[in-house]
Amino acid sequence: MEQFGTVALVGSPSSGKSTLFNRICDSRQEITGKQFGITRDRNYGQGHWLNKEFTLIDTGGVTGENIPFQEEVQAQVELGCQEADVILFVVDGRMGLTNNDLFVAKKLRPHKKKVLLVVNKIDDSTMFANGYDFYKLGFGHPYLISAEHGLGLGDLLDDVIARLPEKEEDPYEGALTFALLGRPNVGKSSLANKIIGYNRVIVSPMSGTTRDSVDIQFVRDEKRYVMIDTAGIKRPGKVAEDLDKFALIRSQDACKRADIILLLIDASEGLVAQDVHVSSYAIDNNKPVIIVVNKWDLHTHNEDDQRKFSQELKAYFKFLDYAPIVFVSALTGQNIQKIFAALDEVNETIHRTVPSSMLNSVIMKAQMDNEAPDFNGGRLKINYCTQTKAVPPTFILFVNNPNYFHFSYQRYLENCIRKQFGFTNCPIKLLVRSKRDDILK
Q1: What is the pTM of this model?
Q2: I need a labelling partner for 184 at 20 to 30 A (CA). Which of 10, 69, 109, 229 fits?
């Protein structure tokens, strides 16, 4: 598929930008709804037209009204406009020309050469006349479309592609992808901005500022990374609105896409039950975790504080006892470099392979040192073990009967493999197969 440049969607709140984003990307990546001002940060996706592909940026709704986060939203919109090769100025054809459309037009005037005017929500031919008023905005002939029904998009996308420069494909392949995960207001967006060195995402002391997962590509020390800033995961009883539910889905998707999860803990508030719930998203997806204790500058700094906090973490997260712990401050930048040291170490570990001969020697010795218990009417005997190519490290055990495999013995074998081969900072996975499968194979 041919790769082209970047398109940004800009307009008033509720003009249908996110619906158009989803239509062009052929996905439900962006959250949409009837609520005013849903999108706040820039969100990226891959637009498709025929055999052409391009980067698409959805931006927050621009308004002259004094509402929360509008200053930050407009700053994000301006960055999106600077990055884009083509800007689609999206207006609401049902509502008609508004004073706010004039306000947005003024903001876009410095980028006029890149702007195409798109009159959205023109759902049938009886509404074509609604487009004439928008000539007053000064951006030439308007494209009449319905993002919801896909009407009129062909002519628009033909002209968009004609204006876009071709570019070489630059996928995430080869980059280390990590997701920032945590409950609301633990400082994920502040940490994201500190990591890349500028205000890429909106930060506020108000809980729930980030609603979408935001992918950020960057290079550090000649290594490529993709960082996913996610919405704060609320307690199940607090997830009531549709927006919260979609944000939760996006956070779950981020966990699946990420190679490593950075689980953020608020040092100023200490551990709470919700932190354990958040950690389950990483555990359920069998992802390596680095526990990042943020806001350490607000914690006391006695000699044993970090050791005691680490012990408390290990006791709290019983299934993350392998996870490295890093104490940082997103506000001051303290120990940010230690996050990348931990990322590189974990990434090396999850791609480590073990020769089958050495692996089987360890498994045989483990059985001799500690024989499997009687379980389900029999005793487990492991005939052979091999490592797959899966990440994180995954091992297949061929046994006499998988039903004899007790959970406690599984933990014992995992610990043996960890200790012997250095898988001390990531999860490992044991798959059990009947020895008949080995014979058939």
Answers
A1: 0.60
A2: 10
In 232-391, which residue ranges form alpha helices assigned H by DSSP? 242-257, 273-284, 305-316, 336-350, 356-369
Find how far residue 239's CA is from the centre of its chain.
19
Pick the CATH number of 2-163 from 3.40.50.300, 3.30.930.10, 3.40.190.10, 3.20.20.150: 3.40.50.300
With the C-alpha atoms ordered 124, 29, 252, 71, is the resulting torsion angle positive or negative? negative
Distance, CA of 14 to CA of 360 (rounded, Å): 61
Please say whether the beta carbons of 331 and 365 come within 8 A: no
Residue 275 has pLDDT above 50, yes or no: yes
- Per-residue pLDDT tens for 221-264? 889 999 998 876 766 555 444 445 556 666 777 888 899 999 99
Beta bridge partners of 88: 9, 116
pLDDT in tens, 149-189: 999 999 999 999 999 998 765 567 789 999 999 988 898 88
Question: How far apart are the C-alpha atoms of 96 and 111, rounded to whole Å?
Answer: 23
The radius of gyration computed from the CA coordinates of the chain, to the nearest angstrom, equals: 26
Q: Return d(Cα 110, Cα 398) in angstroms, integer.
A: 67
Dihedral, 188, 5, 155, 88 alpha carbons, nearest 10: 50
Range list for CATH 3.30.300.20 in the chain: 356-440
Distances (CA, A) of 277 to 284, 344, 430: 11, 26, 24
8 Å CB contact between 26 and 4: no
Task: Delimit the CATH 3.40.50.300 region(s) of the chain.
Answer: 2-163, 176-350
3-state helix, strand, coil in the chain (%, to 5): 40, 25, 35
CA distances from 340 to 24, 98, 119, 234 (A): 35, 48, 45, 27
Alpha helices by DSSP H, listed for 199-272, are 242-257
Per-residue b/e over 145-174, b at no fewer than 16 CB within 10 Å?
bbbeeeebbeebbeebbeebeeeeeeeeee
pLDDT at residue 209, as a whole number? 43
Domain spanning 176-350: CATH 3.40.50.300: yes
